[in-house]
Amino acid sequence: MKNNTIKILTLILSFLLLLPCIFVHANGTLTPTIAVDTAEAVCGQTVELEVSLQNNPGIASFALDVGYDATKLIYNGATVNESFSSAAVNENFIFWYDWADSYYNGVVFTLSFTVKDAVLSGRTQISVNYDNETGGIINFGEENVDFAISSGYIDILSEIGDPNNDKKINSEDLVVLNQILFGNILADDVLTAVCDVKPDMEINILDLIRLKRYICGDNISLGNV
Ligand SMILES: [Ca+2]
Ligand SMILES: [Ca+2]
Q1: pTM
Q2: Given 3.90.1150.10, 2.60.40.680, 2.70.50.60, 3.40.50.2300, which CATH number is that of 33-156?
């Protein structure tokens, strides 16, 4: 009886000791992932974002679509890393295959975007998509390989008080603040920072009044308490 108790306690202790390992695995550190970079840019600026493979378990083919907001960004194309030089790039569709599994981890291709003129400040997402119902990513054993997607983004910046990014601070920017206050525009952290002309990390009626006074020529600055 005593021996059985010791065995049970030993099993429980062993399980508890293994818990951190189980957690690390379940936490996704070994999850195959396609990760897209992040960047900051102002209107008219061109930025490049790298797209990388992480924890690649072995793949022989991928067919990937690049997703982006065409109202804010111009897509200039993708430059494929030399390890995948046989890939075909057709607009925002990138297709590659080989006759053996590749276990490569690192940059697969680099995306180039130019931020359009006069677009609303804020964060815009860049995603990479695939469809394993149609063989999006497979290995040489003809099996689907699931990758998590870690999307990237571009933070479109502008001067404080100029959320519509037209290099002028006028009534059109007041309209943007008004729409934020009425809930018609959801302000993310980037847009909030641009509109927070009376700074307190939020957009409220005080920002609207401050911007109105500035536009009317009051001797008042934007971005100072
Ligand atoms: Ca403006
Ligand atoms: Ca504020």
Answers
A1: 0.83
A2: 2.60.40.680
Q: Which residue has the tokens 């293994």?
A: 18
Instruction: Give the ligand with the smallest distance to the CA of 166.
Output: 1
Mind listing the pLDDT tens digit for each residue in 158-212?
999 999 999 999 999 999 999 999 999 999 999 999 999 999 999 999 999 999 9
Ligand having the closest approach to the CA of 176: 1
CB 208, CB 201: distance < 8 Å: no
Q: Which amino acid is at 214?
A: Y
Q: How far apart are the CA of 199 and the centre of ligand 2, in A?
A: 4
Report CA(112)–ligand 1 centroid distance (Å). 26
Residues 130, 63: contact at Cβ < 8 Å? yes
Among all ligands shown, which has an atom nearest to the Cα of 195? 2
CA of 39 from ligand 2 middle (Å) equals 25
Cα–ligand 2 centroid distance for 213 (angstroms): 14
The domain 159-225 is placed in CATH, from the list 1.10.10.10, 1.10.1330.10, 3.40.50.720, 2.60.20.10, at 1.10.1330.10
- Which ligand approaches the C-alpha of residue 198 most closely? 2
Q: Coil, helix or strand for 7?
A: helix
- CA torsion, ordered 135, 139, 142, 148, to nearest 10 deg: -40
User: pLDDT tens-digit profile of 127-136?
Assistant: 999 999 988 9
Alpha carbon of 202 to ligand 2 centroid (Å): 5
